[in-house]
ABC transporter substrate-binding protein
Amino acid sequence: MSANRSRLLFACLAAAFSLNAQAAALTAGSPPSSAPTTFLDTKSGKIEGFMPDVAAEVAKRQHLEINYTAIPFSTLIQSVIAGKIDMIVAGMTPTEERAKRITFSQPVTAFGAGLVVRDDNKKTYNSWQDVKGDIVGTMAGTDYTQSLMASGIAKEVKVYDSPADMTRDLSLGRIAAGMNDYPILKAQEKAGGLKGMHVIDGYKPEHVSPMAFGVKKGNDKLMAEINSALTAMKDDGTLQTIKTKWGMP
């Protein structure tokens, strides 16, 4: 083989390798302030948490590379539909309405909403029926926000984009209670972010919902890779190990 033909062959192989490498690189969107599900580590500048750890194991098994961008929960679905991201890595429930817009993976875990109140609030809260007459804060884009609004139980439902904004208003007495994913509230409490407030451990959520990854409709190859890895991780115990690490159910 001549030197010119060798160089040409090498160039073609290099180009093919480059294209494959680019195809394997994904952009994932995650909320930056939903620890322990997903959060932005201010020291490393990276998105971390339970769902990113699961996604990292999926990527490892399927020879993928995931790059993260911080996106508010309420705009994740539109971001994946618009092609700004390839994958939603968040504590998102695959509701019927959401499933009409994007494709969800098999469930990764499941949990319900928790309730946080000020320490001087002596009212008993066993279920969301007990928020009757209260002004309640919830997180934008969550399924229980819509359910609570539709129920008409609360006097008023205030919607927030970040857990910190909600708990700030709670501490100032602008709302009587705050509703968010139970693991997120417990992580805030453990980190000392709920001074003068506490999570009600005896509160029973209206629904316990599954959490899953999401991709754009039509991206069947990526979804098949995600589901294949998740099945294997459930079978070999890897998923349970990650759940235990982050205190997830």
